[in-house]
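Working notes for the structural subgroup meeting. M.R. asked for a predicted model of this chain before we commit to crystallization trials. I am recording the input and output together here so anyone reviewing the notebook later can reproduce the run.

Input as submitted:
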Amino acid sequence: QLQLAESGGGLVQTGGSLRLSCAASGRTDSRYALGWFRQTPGKEREFVAAISWDGRLSYYADSVKGRFTIDRNNARTPVHLQMNGLKPEDTAVYYCAADPTFPPVSSSWGEYWGQGTQVTVSS
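Returned structure, recorded in token form:
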């Protein structure tokens, strides 16, 4: 079992920055890739970014390339999502997910999920 806990969400103005964190507990010795997804009411959950278990490979949605950066030191340290140049369309609940596969090409990717953290970007 793996438990995920997100933090760092909040309210920011357009063009501002936020840094989300996802801390894992439980089977942190397992080689899980971690990813970030987001969802707004009435829409499907959307992939944002993911990073391999060892932090060497990363993968981004086109909508956030050049603005967001995902990083982790190793399989046991938190995963961070640095979000710069935020736009109102980035407003969503952001979820952290873990899966043994990478990159997240499958629609069923994400064996474990966190509870989410709200990000609101005001215009």
